[in-house]
Design brief:
Strand content: 15-25%
Distance between the termini: 50 Å
Order of helices and strands: HEHEHHEHEHHEEHEHEHEHHHHHH
Shape: globular
Radius of gyration: 20 Å
Largest sheet: 8 strands, parallel, barrel
Strand order of the largest sheet: 1-2-3-4-5-7-8-9
CATH class of the largest domain: Alpha Beta
CATH superfamily of the largest domain: Aldolase class I
Helix content: 40-55%
CATH topology of the largest domain: TIM Barrel
Bound molecules: flavin mononucleotide
Length: 324
């Protein structure tokens, strides 16, 4: 078994979650400014990879310095993972893989992936067996604890993972019915951490040092941060410094610097791709709105940024608001 997860978690026990639409290379490059731990990519379709679909292949683009980086895969057909893993390894620098078994989004469930797998443990087993026989790279799986509180499956999945050579298990400690707001079952994380032979990475509702500490006290090997890193990529540094002041941690000028560098990375990323600059401009606006939380005049800035036309206006407003 690879020690990719355990050794990286020993260095930094925080983990950056896969966030579709946000864990793209431009944002991952920003995360790296504040974080040296494991980062997950956006989910990548195994059907697209196995057919070498051009757009899907672009999800494999990365910088060398992004390591440790995990490519997250999704899909419902166990056989497709065999080819997908081979294609990824042939075409890209792969540190490790993950399988999405917790996403409640319709598109993913329709393809038989994400949460749909929580209903079909045989399929989970077939998927992990196929990955294990197709690659020597480390891989994790990311689950929810079940579809609903009355139908929890985390225990069975942990056994499958341990028996079939999965290297780490990420547990979003909510059910599918809880979506993104139900209670995070720290009691279950504690039970799993006590029994597991592989590293357990807990996930759900961690926003700052206090919530990180509560989850870490369950005994998990790592703590994965999702939405909080979307709202403030520097949250990793805040937690490492044992602080809770996420929204006053950076000065306005430093935040403006982050947004400007993010835009440069976004521009670079559109080159040679079938991608419009406006796509990333809308994403940049979202980040600008999230990052301004807690600043004077944030409400007005939010309203104004959505009225802007074109990137020059967006960047101008950011300069004006953050005072640089
Ligand atoms: C916008 C968004 C996109 C997400 N995309 C993915 C994804 O691609 N793969 C995945 O496994 N989970 C995805 N998730 C779930 C997160 O990785 C994480 O499990 C969830 O948000 C709970 O963690 P948090 O409470 O720290 O946000 C996504 C969540 C959000 C809000």
């Amino acid at each position: 078994m690879s020690d990719f997860f355990s050794s990286n978690l020993l260095k930094n026990d925080l983990v950056a979650a896969p966030l579709a639409g946000y864990s793209h290379m431009p944002y991952r490059r920003i995360l790296r400014e504040f974080f040296d731990g494991i980062i997950y990519s956006e989910m990548i379709s195994v059907e697209g990879l196995s057919r070498r679909n051009k757009e899907t292949m672009e999800y494999l683009d990365r910088k060398d310095y992004e390591s440790p980086l995990v490519f997250q895969l999704f899909g419902g057909k166990p056989e497709s993972y065999i080819e997908a893993v081979k294609v990824a390894e042939n075409e890209a620098q792969v540190d490790a893989f993950d399988v999405n078994m917790g996403c409640p989004v319709k598109k993913v469930i329709k393809a038989g992936g994400g949460c749909a797998l929580l209903n079909d443990l045989d399929r989970i087993k077939a998927i992990v067996q196929n990955i294990r026989k197709s690659t020597t790279k480390p891989f994790s799986i990311k689950i929810r604890i079940g579809l609903e509180q009355k139908k929890l499956v985390y225990d069975e999945i942990l056994k499958i993972a341990e028996n079939e050579g999965v290297d780490a298990l990420i547990v979003h400690a909510r059910t599918k019915s809880d979506m993104f707001s139900g209670t995070v079952r720290l009691d279950i994380l504690e039970e799993m951490a006590a029994n597991a032979k592989i590293p357990i990475i807990g996930n759900g509702g961690v926003l700052d040092y206090d919530s990180y500490k509560k989850m870490k006290e369950t005994g998990v090997a790592g703590v994965m941060i999702g939405r909080a890193m979307m709202k403030a990529p520097w949250v990793f540094e805040v937690i490492k410094n044992k602080q809770n002041n996420v929204y006053s941690y950076l000065s306005p000028a430093e935040i403006a610097g982050v947004l400007n560098r993010l835009w440069e990375h976004m521009l670079e990323h559109t080159k040679g791709r079938n991608m419009k600059e406006t796509h990333y401009m809308h994403v940049l606006k979202k980040f600008a709105v999230w990052f301004c939380k807690g600043q004077d005049g944030a409400a007005e800035f939010r309203t104004n940024i959505y009225k802007t036309n074109g990137i020059d206006e967006v960047l101008g407003l950011i300069r004006q608001f953050y005072g640089c």
